[in-house]
Amino acid sequence: MTINQIVRNTVERLKSEGKVWTPDLYAEVFCMEAKKAGVQVEDCTGIERFTLLLDKKTLDEVKQYRVRTTAELIRFLISKLGRLNPSEASMLVEVLIALSRAMAQSIDLLHNPDASALAKKTITILETQGGKTQLELLKQAWENFLSVYDDTFLIKLSSFGIVDRANLKKTVEGLENVKITSPSKDNSKVASLLMMGLSPSIAPTMDDELATLARKVYDNPDYIDHDTFENEIKMAIAMRIALDKKSVNEMIRSLDELLGKLSVQLIDLIEKSDISTVEIREIKNNLESLETDKSGDFKAAHKRLYTIASALEEKVEVLSKDLKFHNEKVIQMGSKITALEEELAQATHAAREDFLTKLYNKRALDEFMGHKEAEYERHGRSYCIAMFDLDHFKKVNDTYGHEAGDMVLRAFARILKEEGRTNDIIGRFGGEEFLVILGDTTLEGAKIFANKVREHVQGAHFMYQDQRIELTVSVGIAQRDAYSSLGNTIVGADEQLYAAKKKGRNRVEPA
Fold it and tell me: Would you tell me how many other CB atoms lie within 10 Å of the CB of residue 29?
């Protein structure tokens, strides 16, 4: 599979999931498609190279939090820096600067002038301890480089050997073993093109003699080198031209008959018209005089057509005025349709969004689950469904009022967004129940995500009118390939949620 095909698969997948395209989301989905296709892309293996430099404890934390991309690794390390004491943070910053300098020096050795220039600029800024603004601009420059980098020029080498995008050295070494040989003479392609040229371009059928020669050359392409072939091909060309001329003459006669009938009808129309003028009567006389001329050539046909066009010009002018009037009506209707389409788009968006939490509503969740189910049936991509329910939410409404309950629901929605990945689908299933669709995620990965949300809720400060509201959440999880249908998977997640409630709440099931 080629990189272009992987890109097309990535775009189709993003469209089917209905997500807003971002560089991070595109890179993540692209790497998934590349891995699925068995293609190694250097940009997708960057995190493996960097994690080899981490200590075992940090590496275990990276795996636990499902860090998948280089950008996520950098954010994770920055977050970890904030939790260290100043001395440890300083040491880690020095190590990260040294790591970045080594990476930039490595990139400088690559055979790409843009990447080398950016690498040298990175080393300079690191050595001079550039400020936040310089680092942000440098980060943006690297992101721009990644978004426009194109290595399709390597395809030009495919005619000389196997192109390995992940190993340029291997590709160049493979070119050394290519042996250029002179192609053997093959008349089959020439014979095929020659027979296409002999086929009449206008005449509907081929003459028997032409067909015989075509069959002879088709069966034996080397007949082209025969001494008698030159004379035979000259005769065949002359015959082909004669057949085309004959067909043209027959078409001209048919056209002439049609023009004659049209002239009679036009003359009859002019005679019956109440608006006949001197000019129209003159056209009528010209048509009658031309009717006596039966010469079968294109020049006569052209004159007849010109005469008819001139006679119809005045009639068309009246029709044009009517069309202009109706066109204005059509434009007005088009404006109304555009306005209605905009209103429909707004209504469609509102129909998919929960008015309180601004998450997807149940209708939108059902639609997305339908997309995921189609991917599962077509490609075998499993997914997990996590059902969240706020514990003792009725008590919050009874104690503090429904306004406090709405505040809690909005705050919990923000927590789900913060902990969710860009490709996770988050929505309000109803009341205090929320549902998250975790694509390409195992049951173990879904548990990690659910526990992160649970711990976040337990440690959060839900404040209403200077009063803190203690809140916990219970979670039920189901993996699609463990059930016979999508409906059973949803029921399974709901049953696991019920089990979490029954076992004391503030827990994730299956645990």
Answer: 22
Residue-wise pLDDT for 82-132, tens only, equals: 666 556 556 656 666 665 766 666 665 566 677 777 777 777 876 776 666
How many C-beta neighbours within 10 Å does residue 92 have?
16
Q: Would you list the domain boundaries of the chain?
A: 3-173, 188-313, 362-509
The fourth-level CATH superfamily of domain 362-509 is Reverse transcriptase/Diguanylate cyclase domain (3.30.70.270)
Tokens standing for 510?
Answer: 């299956």
CA distance 27 to 69: 8
The alpha-carbon radius of gyration of the chain (Å, integer) is 38
Exposed (0-12), middle (13-18) or buried (19+): which is 150, by Cβ within 10 Å?
exposed
CA 416 to CA 75: how far, in whole Å?
19
CA dist 371 and 373 (Å) reads 5
Dihedral of CA atoms 171, 174, 176, 181 in degrees, nearest 10, equals -120
Tens-place pLDDT, residues 342-371: 765 565 555 789 999 999 999 999 999 999
Q: How far apart are CA 316 and CA 104, in angstroms?
A: 73
Burial class (CB in 10 A: 0-12, 13-18, 19+), 317: exposed
Query: Is there a contact between 75 and 53 (Cβ–Cβ < 8 Å)?
Result: no
Closest CA to 107 of 154, 62, 43: 43
- For 365-472, where are the E strands, in sequence order? 383-390, 425-430, 433-439, 462-464, 467-469
Identify whether the C-beta of residue 449 lies closer than 8 Å to the C-beta of residue 391.
no
- DSSP H helices, 149-207, are 168-176, 188-198
Per the CB < 8 A criterion, the answer to whether 287 and 307 are in contact is yes
Cα–Cα distance measured from residue 73 to residue 140, given in angstroms and rounded to the nearest whole number: 17
Q: Which pTM does this prediction carry?
A: 0.37
* CA atoms of 274 and 388, how far apart (whole Å): 83
User: Which residues are within 8 A (CB) of 115 and not within 5 positions of it... i.e. 6 or more apart?
Assistant: 107, 108, 145, 149
b/e code 110-140 from CB counts within 10 Å (16+ = b): eeeeebeebbebbbebbeeebeeeeeeebee
**Which two tokens mark 333?**
């209707």
Helix, strand, coil content of the chain in percent (nearest 5): 70, 5, 25
Amino acid symbol at 450:
A
Q: Is the dihedral of CA 373, 374, 375, 377 positive or negative?
A: positive
Encoded amino acid at 163, one letter: V
